[in-house]
User: Fold these one by one.
Assistant:
Number 1:
Amino acid sequence: MSEAPGRKMPESDDNLTSDLSALGGIALAPGVTIPRDALRLQYARSGGPGGQNVNKVNTKAEIWVVVSALRGLRDGAIARLRASAGSRLTKGDEIHIVSESERSQEGNRQEVMDRLRELIVAAKVEPKRRRKTKPSAGAKRRRLESKKKRGEIKAQRRGPGED
């Protein structure tokens, strides 16, 4: 593909990720990075089905991410991230995610990275503020009229002297 003179091609995500890796940071989500030393990835033997492969290959992937080291998140987003992490948040202020659902190490590594990305993206979304509303005068009137009408219907069912 030829490039027109004076026109810059947009950078792809691959170029952006490699640039961040060169600077010592890892891109976790759009606009969110973390230094390499604040992220720990570990592999272990997985349980479950898989035959002899289970006993020989370290396929389970675990990731620990230091929450306070995340760059690109506002304070509110970090608070939401800690809240949504729930039991995955350790006493050392790290998010710990485990995956052993895939049969390959690469599949489980991708799974933990995807889960972490989902948590971060969800935390970045600021919830809408609730605006207090009150029913209109017409709505109040209609509600009271329907209650009165229903009460009259029930009153007609009663026999004489059942008040």
Number 2:
Amino acid sequence: VAVLVAVGALLGMGRNFLPAFNEGAAQVNLFAQPGTSLETSRTISQMADKRFRQLLATPEHPNRPLLNFTCRTGRAEDDEHVMGVNVSEYVMSLNPNSPLSRAELIEELTHAVEDLPGVEHEVEQPIAHLISHMLSGVTAQIAVKLYGEDLTTLRVTADEIKAAIETIDGIAEPVVEQQQQVPQMRIELQREQLAFYGISARYVHDFVETAMNGRVVSQVLEGDRSFDMMLRLDEPYREAIDQLGRLALELPDGQRIPLGSVARVYESAGPNAISREDAQRRIVVRVNTAGRDLASAVEMIQQRIDAEVDLPEGYFVTLGGQFEAQQEATRRIVWLGLLAIAVVFLVLHAAYPSISVVLQILLALPVALVGGVAALLLTGQDLSVAGMVGFISLGGIAARNGLLLVSTYLDRAREFGLTREAIVQGSLDRVAPVLMTSLTTGLGLLPLVIGGDLPGKEILLPVATVIVGGLITSTACEFLLRPGLFWALRADAERLLASPEEPDVRTPTAA
């Protein structure tokens, strides 16, 4: 009954890829509208700075949650993650003496920036932020990816998806990937005019690139240092779009003509970014969980999208992010775990050619499962990849103790016969070895269970919790269940003992 209850609890338990980290830091990303100037982003950052300062720890208020914070607006083009100046990233050091929990702190930071005008926000931890980006290319635990052809339809449908899922309990406010129309200066070459003047499109492109973006033409030396000399139009002329058509373009023969003679220069609008995946245009709605496990959040998001969002023809949605890695890791661990059990079964059967005896040894596995599941439930943890690794390690320890007792029973039965007294005495003989093995492992992992919420120990907490809980029930099984079970199934053990260990090749029967 306990095993069945444990299996049911395990199947209904919340599932995450990794346990929640306590990094001692937080990251707040602010997203203004694409095309926002640097000055406007600075103004927004100053407003956020003022609010974050109210959370800084001071001698008068030492228990406030923040020790310090820094802000970075935009990222350079040579950075591995290019960002426009409309994006500001705050990285904050947290006060370990603050009474706020991780969830309460994230909620406090969210309240601090949620009403900034025209700004979307994400609140996460730096390492968790990078793990999400590494797994799915999206800086969130769950990525709702919408694929289609028309950018406007993608944006409208993504907003519908956001409206449908933002009321789900246990998730932070969804953020739609910023794909919007922004002002652009467009220079369209007129091919007939290029042919008339005898110049190529590349010639005009190089000229425009030099005028607008600049080109390094030389270097200036000052002592031991060198500086690039760049040639380009001065700032006021690069911004005067209505005057760019009059810019003098020198032809190869020395003749000069206005740029407007071979190109149409005008101001228009275009998408700030076009994202593609598998050769298809896509837009992403980013979602982070807030006090809810990953698997149930993904299931609820899928249900809301199916029920409330009418996707246009040719458009479809996929869900990605950490939960994909969690599902893949779960499948791999389950199959490898079953393979390991099968190999152990074959090895034990080779040593003890009786299926009943081998199953008695492997009885420790489901009994250990009961303790591991109970420990996770008592500590309020979800099932993660780290917890599944703990179950596999626990199975090895539990099966070893079972093998130790069963082999002792069989040795005593060969020497004194299979009696109650032989089984009881065999159990008493193995109390010290089994307890020593279990206590050594359990006491060694106990500090991780007690202090598992400290930074740097979160990934080991589920492993230690499962092993300690499972060792309690599996050790109790060895001395409370196994002796009686072995006695109840002694007929199988007697048949095993009756078979000769080594065939006698001198007898006709053996021959």
